[in-house]
């Protein structure tokens, strides 16, 4: 079978797919062939177009080219915005997965409402990831391929690091413990002199 015919079949499978597909899923429908070459060829063919073939979390899908996204803003269904608690929980899960509710609460420093995790599961961003082998066997949570696709990440390794977050102004610098001790000593001396 000619290589271009196989690439056409791969293209048809990906175009008709309702969800991103793994290479094994693609082979199930398109049959055997040089899948790597077909995907590489299709990625190059679609690079200058309004839709691009991309890989997210080991799965392949067509998505709107970034420079054309604004064209579809009015036509796109706008998902409900996540509240601050949900954003914080999602970030913790993404950086620490698999993670339990208790671990999320420990990192956040406050209780996490049950609805917060339910909202993230309904949005398709997180999924149950089994139970921890500890007393009480708490449920663990992990991100999904939909999370990667929504945020334009190929893998979780593409999440910004600490230095990138600080450079973007998204993290406040931690207070210097020496300054806290000096301030506490100054307050104590002021209080004793009164």
Automatic annotation (TrEMBL):
GO terms for biological process: cell division; chromosome separation. The keyword Transmembrane does not apply. The keyword Transferase does not apply. Keywords: Cell cycle, Cell division, Chromosome partition, Cytoplasm. InterPro entries: ScpB_csome_segregation, WH-like_DNA-bd_sf, WH_DNA-bd_sf. Residues 173-194 are annotated as: Disordered. Residues 185-194 have a biased composition (Low complexity). It comes from the Bacteria. This is SMC-Scp complex subunit ScpB.
